[in-house]
Amino acid sequence: MSKNQKKLWQLKWVVSALSICLWIFQSGCEKAEAPFSLTDTTLSIKQVDYEGAVYYNEGDPLPHLDLEKVKWRTFVEKEHRTVILENKYIKLTLLPEMGRVYSLIYKSTGHEEFWRNDIVRPGGGQNNDTGWWLWIGGAEYTLPGDEHGTTWAIPWKYEILDDSEAKKTVRMSVQEPVTRLKETIDISIYPDKSYYEADIEISNPTQDTVQYAHWINPQWTPGGHNELTDSTEFIIPTDRILIEERWQKNLGPSPQQWAGNPLRFISGWKNRGDLMADGLREGFYSAYSHDEEEGMVRVFNKEKTPGVDIWTYGYCPKRILMGSGAPNKGYAEMWGGTSKLYPDERHPLPPGESIGWTEWMYPYQKTKGLTYADKKMAVNFKVNVDKESAIIGLCSSSRLEVRCEVDIEGAKPILIGDLKLSPDKAFCSAVDLSGLPLDKATLVLTTPKAKKILHPQWSKE
């Protein structure tokens, strides 16, 4: 080997060694910046001293509460079993022995997306069999029907199903003591996804057909203020809403058209109440804070869970049940259920049978609203007729390459761009459509694996 060949070989060796060192360094940085972990621990949460007022009636398996015996001015620390699931985009906290998602922090903004009571406290609840409810926050999964059901008050079991590098999964399970229905919820996160996934199954181990309804109740406050911001929008892909008679004084007659309805924004709610979707075009719904440009969305199978109900305290309520008594503008309970109507409609589950589905929930940002969502992406496509322009906003739940075009029949497609999206890198832009037939416009989103064609939502100046 000549001297020049030897020097060249040595140089190649040095370059190769430096490349390996750089790869190790970058991998270490990525791991340091992007934890993927499951932590089974405890969390101390302050609450009103109420547990001594809980009682059981003979032959009744449900816990009840004597409100007169609650020590309202005494606060205690309650230790809860807690599982924390974390990746580069979200930090999810479960209270698995309550069957509850307690917290979701969107790491791109640092914001908590669920409402949480500053001091947990109970209150009366006349429309379920326990007669009370616990104002704690987060998201609850409820059986067998009625408002809040009973499973929020029943101890759940849990186990860690998967703690691998590919997936973290916690199973929470409960048997509702009156109907004897069993529910299991497998909560999962993945290293590179901003959603949490819930695989839900309800089974009937009894010898009788059971009438039931399952509802999920996420208590959302997107934007990080632990209360609804003044320009929070409620987004449901429906044509009409229904108002129960007891709430029509506060929210107006039933039915109502949803397009352009003032109840789409919290500022349009004169007082508290519920509204229900009268059928869904798509399987998603959302709350979006235009003040903070941040939202939460639930994506689901609309055939398995066709019900959507929104409850709020109204716009700037005088008082909600904060444990400390501090002022708060409240939260949106955006219920999703196996029945269309909330809370009284139920359906039969025959003996030995079960029903199951998968759903996803994730935060998104900087889209100026939402017109469509699936588990991969939150999309806003609004066409302003007066301005002859469109707003296009995209925020994905993972790293995603997408070609974005506006296709107008009879005209050349308008390329918006070949975009590289992620939960911490959204895209939003105004597009000039002057002189073009706006009623022919569609948004075409092409990824390496699929193409999605979306129609716009219309607006006027």
How is the topology of this model organized?
Layout: H1 3-33, E1 37-49, E2 54-55, E3 64-65, E4 71-86, E5 90-95, E6 100-106, E7 111-112, E8 116-124, E9 132-137, E10 139-142, E11 157-163, E12 168-175, E13 182-189, E14 196-203, E15 210-212, E16 215-220, E17 232-235, E18 240-242, H2 248-251, E19 256-257, E20 273-277, E21 284-289, E22 294-299, E23 307-312, E24 332-337, E25 347-349, E26 354-365, E27 372-373, E28 377-384, E29 389-396, E30 400-408, E31 414-421, E32 427-432, E33 441-446, E34 451-454, E35 457-459
Parallel strand pairs: 28-35
Antiparallel strand pairs: 1-4, 2-3, 4-5, 5-6, 6-7, 6-10, 8-9, 10-16, 11-12, 12-13, 13-14, 14-26, 15-25, 16-24, 17-21, 18-19, 18-20, 20-23, 21-22, 22-26, 23-24, 27-28, 28-29, 29-32, 30-31, 30-33, 33-34
Number of domains: 2
Mean pLDDT: 93
Share of helix among residues?
A: under 10%
Number of helices: 2
Biggest sheet: strands, sense, closure? 12 strands, antiparallel
Derived from helix and strand composition plus strand pairing, the structural class reads: mainly beta
Radius of gyration: 25 Å
Work out the number of β strands. Answer: 35
**Subunit organisation of the chains:** single chain
Q: β content, as a range?
A: over 45%
N-to-C CA distance? 79 Å
Q: Could you say which overall geometry the principal axes of the C-alpha atoms support?
A: globular
CATH class of the largest domain: Mainly Beta
**CATH level-3 fold name of the largest domain:** Beta-galactosidase, Chain A, domain 5
CATH-level-2 architecture of the largest domain = Distorted Sandwich
Low-confidence segments, given as residue ranges, are 14-24
